Amino acid sequence: MTICRSSLLILACSTVLAGCSLGPEYVRPEMPVPVELPHDGIYPAAASDAPDVTSIGWRDFFTDPRLVELISSGLANNRDLRVAAANVMQARAQYKVQRADRLPSVGVSGSATRIETVSSGPDVAVDSYSLAVGVSAFEVDLFDRVANLSRAAQEQFFASEEAQRATRISLIAEIASAWLQLAADQDQLRISQAALATYEESLALSEARFRIGISSELEARQAETAFQSARADIAVLQSQIEQDRNAIDLLLGTAAPSALLPEALGEQDYTLSSLPVAVSSAVLLQRPDVLRAEHQLIAENANIGAARAAFFPRISLTGLLGTASNALGGLFAGGSFSSTTEGGLSLPIFDGGRNQSNLDYAEASQQLAVANYEKAIQTAFREVADALAQRGTIDDRLVARTKQTASASTSLRLSRARYQAGIDSYLVALDAQRTAYASQQQLVDTRLSRALNLVNLYRVLGGGIV
């Protein structure tokens, strides 16, 4: 009964005295960006009832099964993601350690002593045994110092979770981008190889015409220049393709199976062809990097409360229930029990400015966290606006490039026919070849830009979690 009374006394005192928080009330800062995302002019029209992009899981957004399987492998093996997961586990453990300070620590101790006195008479031996259970120096959180420290640790844990989430989204986007880049480079290689064959044919024809005196050496040398340029392009692309594969292996954390790598970019879509975009810029508040910055800001708010509490008294309580006896069997006999309850009070009077400096540091850290939070929102707004600006014009660019390539191919066919018929000089045919070659390359680049834009828009809007 005595230990129950002691415990109840400690808990009662904690309940009565605790709860006077000195931490500033957290108020989310105003968004330092326009209240609406860009949706006029070249920007695509936004929908006021657009669903949250984060509800579109990455398995639904990416439509190619090879890419989906590759991303799954990366999420399982990527080392950056493992580092982020380890950081979360560290933050969780630190929060649990800090939270434990809010509860009393109960311990048990025991001792056994034997004292023998040697004299001229019979030796005398005295035995003593003791057993005690109690609470040692439990701080009554009168001004929420411990509670604020616990809250700060909790918010840092939440911030680490958002950091892991941001790493996960970035990894998904990076794997998809590297995969699409490899596909585009495969297309570019085939275009260069086809151009090389055409230039080789023209070179053979020009040299033959030069040998029989129909044309000048200038024409032959121009043909050879175009031929060697295409050879150099092929060498560069072959190297780039291997670098693309190496980049994918690094992102995956393991070697990518050849069956999962693309052979061509082509004209098909590898993602959803469009994404819903809301009007309100409040959608940015759900991005993991913004949420991480906000959790860090809340943590700094709590640290201010802990720093302010250091100026006020700290109360600690100690409760002890024990039993002692000269015989082991008498430890639990009647009359052997005793209990003590103690309270301690400490009040800082002079500390050389330490507490004030700690408070100044906490307040400065809070201001830094506000700036970081606002910058995170501004960065997010800029990234989304840039992605929307490109999305608003990319389809027009793709249509224009497609028609340009078709026209250049027709021009090439006609100019070659006129050259072979002796109507035009080789310079006209060579110019048509170069134009057709460049337009095909630009068309692949535009298709890649469109695919990458959708991936980037999905990332900057905070998608990719499910």
First-last Cα distance = 54 Å
Query: How large is the share of residues in beta strands?
Result: 5-15%
Order of helices and strands, N to C? HHHHEEHHHEEHH
Number of DSSP strand runs: 4
What radius of gyration results from the CA coordinates?
Answer: 37 Å
What's the number of helices?
Answer: 9
| Overall SS class | alpha+beta
User: Can you summarize the main beta sheet?
Assistant: 4 strands, antiparallel
Q: How confident overall, as mean pLDDT?
A: 85
Into which percent range does the helicity of residues fall?
Answer: 55-70%
Strand order of the largest sheet: 1-2-3-4
Global shape? elongated
**Low-pLDDT ranges:** 1-18
Features:
466 residues; alpha+beta; 4-stranded antiparallel β-sheet; 4 strands
Structure overview:
The chain contains 9 helices and 4 strands, in the order H-H-H-H-E-E-H-H-H-E-E-H-H. It has helices spanning 2-17, 58-61, 65-77, 79-100, 145-211, 217-252, 288-309, 354-420, 426-460; strands spanning 106-117, 124-140, 314-325, 337-346. It starts with a helix and ends in a 6-residue tail after the last helix.
Question: How do the strands and helices of this protein lay out in sequence?
Answer:
Elements: H1 2-17, H2 58-61, H3 65-77, H4 79-100, E1 106-117, E2 124-140, H5 145-211, H6 217-252, H7 288-309, E3 314-325, E4 337-346, H8 354-420, H9 426-460
Antiparallel strand pairs: 1-2, 2-3, 3-4
Helix pairs in contact: 3-5, 4-5, 5-6, 5-7, 5-9, 6-9, 7-8, 8-9
Task: Write a brief caption for the model.
The chain is of the alpha+beta class and 466 residues long. The chain is built from 9 helices and 4 strands; from the N terminus they run ααααββαααββαα. A 4-stranded antiparallel beta sheet has the order 1-2-3-4, with helices on one face.
